[in-house]
Specification:
54% of the residues lie in helices and 12% in strands. The chain is α+β, with helices and mostly antiparallel strands and 275 residues long. About 8% of the residues have low confidence. A hairpin with a 2-residue loop joins strand 5 and strand 6. The chain has a domain of 131 residues: endopeptidase domain like (from Nostoc punctiforme) (endopeptidase fold (from Nostoc punctiforme)), CATH 3.90.1720. The protein is rod-shaped and about 125 Å long. It has a six-stranded antiparallel β-sheet.
Amino acid sequence: MSHTAHIPSHRKPRRSASKIALRAGVAGGVLSTLAVAAAAGTANAAEPVSETIEMPTLTADLSAQIAQSADATQQAADSYESRAEQDAAAAKAAKQAKEDLAKAEKKAEAERKAKAAAAKKAEEERASRATERTTLSTQSTSGSGATASASDSVAPASGSVGTVISFLKAQLGDAYVMGASGPNAWDCSSLVQAAFKQAGVDLPRVSQDQSVAGTPVSLSNIQVGDILYWGGAGSAYHVGVYIGNGQYLDAANPSKGVVIQDLSGYPASGAVRVL
């Protein structure tokens, strides 16, 4: 036996395999823990970077939203402006329509008054002519026989019909000449035309046209101043003017000239009224 066998050895004791394995496991665990911690720390440290990377995306989305909001606001403003313009146009149109209506009503009222005045005047003229015809008819009774001379005639009352009759009687005794138009010779139609022209009535020149120039009246209802015609309406061959009391005045023919005659001796075919 060695003399040093009882002395403890200064050499480090050999570790057993189990202890080594245990320590290695502990070390590995520690290292794993550190690795996990480091990874966590790295992850935590990377979070701000991740947020910084995502910011452009968030900013782009926000810009799009703002742009959409701006477009919506502009559309609303445009719609409001358009509505305001439409309302203004409608108000202007309504005002104009009101003014037009007032003008139309005023014009219609003026036309109604004018028509009423014209109707009243026409009625007064009809009444005046009726009175005049009655007077002329009464005056014509002073003449007798189939013919009369200018000295036998009585001056008619004033007025359009009276003017016609007065002119006709002033021509009594003038000659009858076919185609003549006065002042001292006439044919039947030229005498009638000239007489009514004195009253402001323009008649056609020939008998055929004069027979349809006015309003047709029956022979039973003829009045002083009515035009009498012989032959058919539109194809008459002779005309004269009724002067009342069954008599008419005409440019008869070359042998008689301008005379007053009785209808009973030479009945007319028809009559028209122009006054």
